[in-house]
Design goal:
- The protein has 377 residues and is α+β, with helices and mostly antiparallel strands.
- The protein folds into 2 domains: 78 residues, no CATH class; 281 residues, Cathepsin B, Chain A, CATH 3.90.70.
- Helices cover 26% and strands 19% of the residues.
- Strands 3, 4, 7, 8, 9, 10, 11, 12 and 13 form a 9-stranded mixed sheet that branches. A two-stranded antiparallel sheet has the order 1-2. The protein has a two-stranded parallel sheet with strand order 5-6.
- Strand 10 and strand 11 form a beta hairpin.
- Helix 7 crosses helix 8.
- It is globular and about 55 Å long.
């Protein structure tokens, strides 16, 4: 809902509240910053004059136009003022780094055919966490770092495949599968570090297989991730700065790293099936609790980059593209239903690399494109 037009004056700057977005983002004067703060407070008091507010009431109000243009600290201040569901934290994040870890929204195309909904004898529980259901499968809680490569489509796919390999083998096979192998060798999947289609990653593993992998620098695996976690990360080793743009997609090498005991073909694991999950809350829940974590694709906005904790729902900021994540469970907090998801932006982002997002209303399209498959064991 737009703030009613009202004139606010500060210093030599006078502006209509309903027109505030027109100049923001292009002028970074102290007066403009003050205006953004004032307009944020006006929006918060005129739209949400009471607390607590329900998530349904919050989502029922359109995002003000000026809020869609906010950036940086102004965006974070606005988020933390107008809603109580998640917290944002300002970090100095270059636009180059932000663009590098987001893929184009063109990859948010779900397959037309979807698997049928699983029939369960038991009811879907109010909460579920795959880490607790299958504690022997440590890969479920592993957070990867895609670095300056738009490879979330492959990283999240390999992550979910690793989980399912362990689950479907009853914990006998705990290998981490290689995202690097998929990024570099699956030509039909898309464009490597410039994005790809998750369903094609699963189909590739059914037809060609995937070798073992791991985090950057990992030994005793065939193909670890090729790019170091760039930039500074809390409590972690500093490998070096982020590049100015995207890393180049690695060339496909059908061989393992030096010192690894197996050859490339002997090291491979294969999928048995690849499919899109029916785009309903219940179907996704049943798939996760029966077969393990799933891969999802969602739209990304600037406010998502600054997510620190809580239950995310798009609040402000422009769309930046799309990303692919892994859904591992669900729950409810203070009446707000949520999915538990693993991101691929390092463990110092969000809730130790994980985040929670509003469940049951297709927030950011997260329920519209869910991909999974079965592994050969």
């Amino acid at each position: 809902m737009m703030v009613p037009a009202r004139q606010v004056t500060t210093g030599h700057l006078s502006i209509e509240a309903s027109d505030c977005a027109l100049g923001y983002g292009f002028v970074h004067s102290p007066e403009v910053h003050v205006m953004i703060v004032i307009l944020t407070l006006l929006t918060a008091t005129s739209v949400f004059a009471f607390k607590p507010i329900t998530w349904a009431a919050f989502k029922a109000h359109p995002i003000p136009k000026f809020a869609m243009r906010l950036e940086g600290e102004d965006l974070v201040d606005y988020i933390n003022t107008v809603q109580p569901f998640f917290q944002a934290n300002f970090t100095v994040l270059s636009k180059e780094k932000e663009r590098a870890r987001i893929m184009s929204a063109q990859f948010m195309v779900a397959p037309k055919e979807r698997a049928g909904e699983i029939v369960l004898a038991e009811e879907v529980p109010r909460s579920f966490d795959a880490r607790e259901r299958w504690p022997e499968c440590k890969s479920i809680g592993m957070i990867r770092d895609q670095s300056a490569c738009g490879s979330c489509w492959a990283v999240s796919a390999a992550s979910a495949m690793s989980d399912r390999l362990c689950i479907q083998s009853n914990g006998k096979s705990k290998k981490i599968l290689s995202d690097a192998d998929i990024i570099s060798c699956c030509k039909e999947c898309g464009y490597g570090c410039q994005g790809g289609w998750p369903i094609e990653a699963w189909r590739y593993v059914v037809n060609r297989g995937v070798c073992t992998g791991g985090l950057y620098g990992e030994k005793n695996v065939c193909k670890p991730y090729p790019f170091y976690p760039c930039g500074h990360h809390d409590g972690q080793k500093y490998y070096g700065p982020c590049p100015q743009g995207l890393h180049e997609t690695p060339k496909c090498k059908k061989q393992c790293q030096r010192g690894y005991e197996k050859n490339y073909e002997e090291d491979k694991f294969f999928g048995k099936s690849a499919y899109a999950v029916k785009d309903t809350e219940a179907a996704i829940q049943k798939e996760i609790m029966t077969n393990g974590p799933v891969q999802a694709v969602m739209r990304t906005y600037q406010d998502f980059s600054y997510y620190k904790g809580g239950i995310y729902m798009h609040t402000a900021g422009a769309q930046t593209g799309a990303t692919s994540v892994k859904l591992i469970g669900w729950g409810e907090e203070s009446g707000v239903p949520y999915w538990i998801a693993a991101n691929t932006w390092n463990s110092d982002w969000g809730e130790n690399g994980f985040f929670r997002i509003l469940r049951g209303s297709n927030e950011c399209g997260v329920e519209s494109m869910v991909i999974a498959g079965m592994m050969k064991v």
